[in-house]
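INFO batch 0412 | record 1 of 1 | parsing
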Amino acid sequence: MTDQQLLDVLFRQARSYGDFRDEPVPEHLLRAAHDLMKWGPTTANSQPGRILYLKSAESREKLRPALAPVNLEKTLKAPMVAIVAYDTRFYEHLPRLYHNPDAINWYKGEKAEINGFRNGSLQGAYLILALRAVGLDCGPMSGFDNAKVDAAFFPDGRFKSNFLINIGYGIADKLPPRNYRFTFEEQSRIL
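INFO prediction complete | emitting tokens
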């Protein structure tokens, strides 16, 4: 694959899918995506992202009460759904993840929430790109009730959900036309 083809796979031709073929997602591709995603930078190598993959119909059914109506059918039909979450006590792992032993003290207390969310979001974005890189399609979404997802899947409160990703082999002929993207000038400034 050329560099230009890779950029097409990751960005230019990649789409957010709502419909997927009825074909299972192999675990080895999830592992391959993880092995790419884990190299993305996070503050102090904190790596607070946590991914819960819902493969069985029963596990996806647990999402039903939390899903917005517009996301219900496509999520329950998706071959795989990832709950992208973050560890609110990620800093406990910093002594083995970061070269400065004092880093564990930088994020305790009120700084933990925003840093866990921010860096977990980065890792979720890296995961989308990694899934695309290994040949899978994604349908990331925010249309759900986080409190209900957390109660169903993370009842001890340590992990908190951020967003969902439907994963599989997308059906391209069901995609709507591509939406507009901002130009550099519309979205950026250089000071």
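INFO post-check: The first strand starts at residue 49 and ends at 54.
INFO record closed
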